[in-house]
Amino acid sequence: MLVVETIARIRREHFIKGKTIKEIARDLKVSRNTVRKVLRSGETSFEYERQVQPRPKLGRWAVELDGLLAANAAKSAREQLTLIRIFEELRGRGYDGGYDAVRRYARRWSKERGQSTAAAYVPLSFAPGEAYQFDWSHEVVLLSGTTVVVKVAHVRLCHSRMLFARAYPRETQEMVFDAHDRAFALFKGTCTRGIYDNMKTAVETIFVGKGRLYNRRFLQMCSHYLVDPVACTPASGWEKGQVENQVGLVRERFFTPRLRFKNLDELNAWLLDKCITYAKAHRHPELVDQTIWDVFEVERPRLVPYAGRFDGFHAVTASVSKTCLVRFDNNKYSVAASAVGRPVEVQAYADRIVIRQDGRIVAEHQL
């Protein structure tokens, strides 16, 4: 089989240097027919695949090999055998042929199985109030003349496609809580199911399949809003494809060209207006005679009623220094002098830090 470098040399020798077929064949030590094939086809690469593969020794073992391959494919990725192990298993049953025949057969078997799987794809559809999807994106903006990378939280109602986006300085758990509350307040309700990727602020352990060990505070938030959280399979973004598409849409339509604002509050007020304006101006992808906002207004009564703000803070225990300072997240916060000598609980919200000791507030700082 010709390598692409040889094909490229043949083409250059003929079309750039003007050499004849005979000269090229002599210089590159290939046949004239090969040179003619390259020049007449105009192709830059050639693939050879044998149409009929003789399997004199595999023959009657093909049925058993099919069974081994099918059983192996049904196992979880961690438990699947390598192809050489399958070959050894087949040899143990009496097969006396070579590995290459098994390898070629398995490659073709996998290709055919992949095509049949792809043909069975069914698009997802969602009933009103059934599910929303959540994701983060990183965008670049100018705040008070300084280039800043902000983290944008995205929420999307799967039925109406109503969108919500809000920018934060980081992706911490308190920011996750705040984004959910503001989105649900806008929607005036939530869905029965929330679809997420395996973000560390929500998922602590990933088990085989859909099993997850969720963070305790995250589960409290879901319980408050009556949401059943569902995590996607790792590296399977299509399971929350709507919000993945929203990330690209918001980046293209809202954050290009680069936005300029004084602070995050101004940026987020503008983002909220843009989300509502977009929903009122664009058609729903399935119910094309209605806008996204029209479908959202119909879906809104079907949502789980908004339960009010969740007390969404991330809590850690800290000590107080002799200078009445508490260190949290690489920053130092002052507290009342009476708190010195005993531990305190730092409660981090999206917009403020509250420090408590024995249930009473000993300091509060706006961010």
TrEMBL record:
InterPro entries: Integrase_cat-core, IstA-like_C, RNaseH-like_sf, RNaseH_sf. SUPFAM superfamilies: Ribonuclease H-like. Pfam families: Mu-transpos_C_2 (PF22483). Gene3D superfamilies: Ribonuclease H-like superfamily/Ribonuclease H (3.30.420.10). It comes from the Bacteria. Residues 124-300 form the Integrase catalytic domain. Belongs to the transposase IS21/IS408/IS1162 family. This is Transposase. It comes from Bradyrhizobium ottawaense.
